[in-house]
Amino acid sequence: MVSEEIRMIAEQYDINLSKIKGSGVNGEVTLEDLEKYIREHFFPKVREERKVFGIRKVIADRLSKSYREAVHVTLNMETEIDNLIQMRKKLTEKLGEKPSYTVLMLKCIAKAIREFIEINATMEKEKIVIYDNVNINVAVDSPIGLITPVIRNVDKKNLKELLKDYADIVERAKKGSLKEKDFVGGTFTITNLGMFGVDSFTPIINPPQIAILGLNRITQKPVIKNGETKVASVMVLSLTFDHRAIDGAPAARFLERVKYYLEHPEKVFEVE
């Protein structure tokens, strides 16, 4: 007989217990069986673990002593998104629906994360854990406040799948029907305040992750290129990272790559 505790946990993860091979008496599913299944199916696969030692440990210890917790450093970088706006129009014709900018940017960010995988990590005590799975938490407004459900394997999903997943978590967030499974296993977080007219801000890291990217409002302004002035649609990216786990230069290079993909969306999306 399966215990009520096991049934309740399984319900939070939408798990059909009959699909789990039990190790208990008469093949009964035990709590250990269920926990193992959850780890295998809902948590990211560890790519690498790095012991913090030497100079990095000295830096981490000193910064921790000063701040007592994650050492937040924020970088702001402006990016032009005229090409992304045009890409959105092409994708709307292809899909028959207008994809949100958040989803399009989510896909660009995931591609940049894959290429700068050290940002896809958590830090707990003296260990930095870098993950293979790009599982991105997306800040969503809900009746109980701002929450951050996760979308898994963002870099591997096509745009239709991503649109479906995003619409699902937003709808369930508004209804208050998200479950525990929707909050575990995240490796990076994005938060979008553009719809509130925010130009730049300092996002707060979602612990134990080491970085969070803030998206701001899209506005038009004159820019100078090759000695010529033109009006462009621009947006500021606000990246906050934990300086104990990653230095400013690699964080800036990651942010530059996000900027590159937002300005060259043809490297991310196919419209043929």
Automatic annotation (TrEMBL):
Domain Peripheral subunit-binding (PSBD), first and last residues per copy: 1-38
Pfam families noted in UniProt: 2-oxoacid_dh, E3_binding
Database matches in InterPro entries: 2-oxoacid_DH_actylTfrase, 2-oxoacid_DH_E2_comp, CAT-like_dom_sf, E3-bd_dom_sf, PSBD
Cofactor requirements of the protein: (R)-lipoate
One of the record's GO molecular function terms: acetyltransferase activity
Any coiled-coil regions, as ranges: none
Recorded superkingdom: Archaea
GO cellular component, one term: cytoplasm
Alphabetical keyword list: Acyltransferase, Pyruvate, Transferase
Record-stated family: Belongs to the 2-oxoacid dehydrogenase family.
Protein name (Swiss-Prot/TrEMBL): Dihydrolipoyllysine-residue acetyltransferase component of pyruvatedehydrogenase complex (E2)
Lineage of the species this protein comes from: Archaea, Methanobacteriati, Methanobacteriota, Thermococci, Thermococcales
